[in-house]
Amino acid sequence: MLDKVEELLQNVDTFTASTKEEVESFRIEYLGSKGILKSLFSEFKNVDPSQRKEFGQALNQLKKNAEEKVKSLQSNLEDQSLSEQKYGDLTRPGEPIALGARHPISIVKNKIIDVFNRIGFTISEGPEIEDDWHNFTALNLPEYHPARDMQDTFFIEKSDEAKDNVLLRTHTSSVQVRYMENNEPPIRTISPGRVFRNEDISARSHCIFHQIEGLYVDTDVSFADLKQTLLFFTKEMFGKSKIRLRPSYFPFTEPSAEVDIYWGLETETDYRITKGTGWLEIMGCGMVDPNVLKNCNIDPTKYSGYAFGMGIERIAMLLYQIPDIRKFYENDVRFLEQFKSAL
Ligand code: DAH
Question: Which of 120, 130, 141, 341 has the smallest C-beta neighbourhood within 10 Å, fewest atoms?
């Protein structure tokens, strides 16, 4: 008899339930009016008097354990249903969090930075609100110089004296000046950033866009160094290995050139974007004008340098075949989502 009670004690101990119904049928089995305990108690009178004390204690223990078991299982299930009401089914698989995408301008900017980092260029930045000196004068564009008209400027403060003007920078070439003023050659730096021009917004131009400026100043820097660096860049960036430099004019470089890459004429799009020539203009460049070096306290008899500047939007439009520059600023998720897989 005692053995049987021991066994039942163990059963009670290990019993678990996951529904209210299971708990209820356990309660009825053990504690109900026709349950196990009832029938064990009714056998009490048949137990040998010498064992009655021990048997009685074991029975009481069993009853107590069964009651406690029922209580604790009931309250566990109640807690669970409370948390279910609050949080829903906690065992359900989670909902995936929608991943965002990097903006194509950031992707292309990072790619360009990566290419130049590999050949030793550092990154530098400057302010978007500039003074006249850094945006124009130091870059060999004195007041009344006709080349100032090349870039329509947003003025924040327009003063009688040009040197006191405060403006939104029209190009990242201003960072060249700041960098040279604060660093000694050898200098190898690229400066990405936002620039502003008072231009009509169309499919091809915008009043806000991004540029990357490059600057290399050291002893004996030559035009050949510039060409080779640009060739490396176009190979890495576009996988194209033919470039040409067309003579051009920028006040801050002498000589100056426009860089074209040979895009090819394989598809109809190639014909359209290259206007049937196969060539595409991608940036301006040149040897830093000695006047600019002088303005930044670098001795032009000792040092020479090259510089280049390109529009990030233009590169992105070519890489991803985007026909309209305004797409970059509309924040239409259907456009932006397409760049999910990119870096
Ligand atoms: N700053 C020029 C622009 O905004 C681009 C440029 C051309 C930068 C030639 C340069 C350069 O450093 O050498 O159109």
Answer: 341
Distance (Å) from CA 253 to ligand 1 centroid: 8
Q: Which residue CA neighbors atom 3 of ligand 1 most closely?
A: 171
pLDDT tens digits, one per residue of 48-107? 888 888 888 888 998 999 899 989 988 888 888 787 788 888 888 888 887 788 999 999
Contact 31, 25 (CB under 8 A): no
Q: Which residue has the tokens 């009481």?
A: 60
Question: Distance between CA atoms of 102 and 286, rounded to whole angstroms?
Answer: 32
**Contact status, residue 312 vs residue 329, Cβ threshold 8 Å:** no
Q: What digits encode the pLDDT tens for the residues 237-295?
A: 999 989 999 999 999 999 999 999 999 999 988 898 889 999 999 999 999 999 999 99
- Angle formed by the axes of helices 223-238 and 104-117, nearest 10°: 130
Q: What residues pair up with 244 in beta bridges, in sequence order?
A: 260
φ, ψ (nearest 5 deg) of residue 74: -60, -45
Level-2 CATH architecture, domain 104-342: 2-Layer Sandwich (3.30)
φ, ψ at 172 (rounded to 5°):
-85, 5
Question: Does residue 286 line the site of ligand 1, with CB under 6 A?
Answer: yes
Q: How far apart are CA 109 and CA 135, in angstroms?
A: 22
Spacing, Cα 310 to ligand 1 middle (Å): 7
| Most ligand 1 atoms within 8 A of CB, residue of 141, 173, 221 to mutate | 173
Q: How many other C-beta atoms lie within 10 A of the C-beta of residue 245?
A: 17
Q: What global pTM score does this model have?
A: 0.74
End-to-end CA distance of the chain: 75
Q: How far is CA 264 from the centre of its chain?
A: 32
